[in-house]
Amino acid sequence: MKVIYTKDYNEISEVCTDLIIEQLQEKSDSILGLATGSSPIKVYQNLIKAYEDKQISFKDVKTYNLDEYIGIDKQNENSYFYFMHDQLFNHIDIDHCNVNFPETNIDHQLACDNYNEKLFNNKVDLQLLGIGTNGHIGFNEPGTSFESTTHVIELDIQTRLDNQSFFNSLEEVPTHAITMGIKNILDAKKIIIIASGLKKAPTIKRLLEGERSEEFPASILFDHDEVYLIIDEEAASLLD
Ligand code: GLP
């Protein structure tokens, strides 16, 4: 794992954007694994700017999002489908047929099987990740098997509390989601994980100084050959 220390959220976003631009310039038909949450918002803004400045095109790019809430339909502004269109896809030249999410409005096992099959046939070139305060990646909560593929997950109470700010109340935060599994994530050729702010400091300390364990899902990233962890001063503030 290559750790890149930056000053703040803006610098994390710049460094991360540059890596994605480099990927798209090297391979215009790249397959990107994308994340939601507050961490990648600025990266998506920067990518829109790079597209407008004609540095990159998404014409031949395919995307696979990590996860989607169960019980919220696509048009709801809290769905990850809505979030990604609002933050990125509606502002770039991507072919909307090339945008992929786990489907949550069909039989869940079928949805997981479909997504695994798609991911098996379309190896992600670059996977972007955030990290939950409990070490989750995608929605792979503590205790998820390192061998897991796309599956239904019951969200941790900590995750629901962390994501409550996007909703009106805790009751509105879904209890379940469909997420790519750890194995799907590790299949990506290159992985970028970003973390910013004091709230992530204990998480980053545990990631870099703790043990590899299914109780801390992000610890699996040390098994991968090409991972870039980009953090800012606040997120790094508890490191020895
Ligand atoms: C969410 C998402 C993750 C994301 C994480 C961190 O629950 N499912 O993919 O990385 O939590 O979110 P944030 O970037 O808002 O801290």
Please, how many helices? Answer: 7
User: Which ions, cofactors or small ligands are bound in this entry?
Assistant: 2-amino-2-deoxy-6-O-phosphono-alpha-D-glucopyranose
Q: Note the quaternary state here.
A: single chain
pLDDT < 50 stretches:
none
Strand content: 15-25%
What structural class do you assign from the helix and strand content? alpha/beta
* Major pleated sheet: 7 strands, parallel
Radius of gyration over C-alpha positions, nearest whole angstrom: 17 Å
Shape: globular
The string of secondary-structure elements, in order, is EHEHEEHEHEEHEHEHE
Please supply descriptive tags for the structure shown above:
3-stranded antiparallel beta sheet, 10 strands, 30% helix, 7-stranded parallel beta sheet, binds 2-amino-2-deoxy-6-O-phosphono-alpha-D-glucopyranose, globular
Question: What does this protein structure show overall?
Answer:
Strand 2, helix 2 and strand 3 form a beta-alpha-beta unit. The strands form two sheets. The chain has a seven-stranded parallel sheet, covered by helices on one side. Strands 4-8-7 form a three-stranded antiparallel sheet, with helices on one face. The model has no long low-confidence stretch (mean pLDDT 97). With 240 residues, it is an alpha/beta fold. The longest helix is centred in the N-terminal third of the chain and has 18 residues. 2-amino-2-deoxy-6-O-phosphono-alpha-D-glucopyranose binds next to loops.
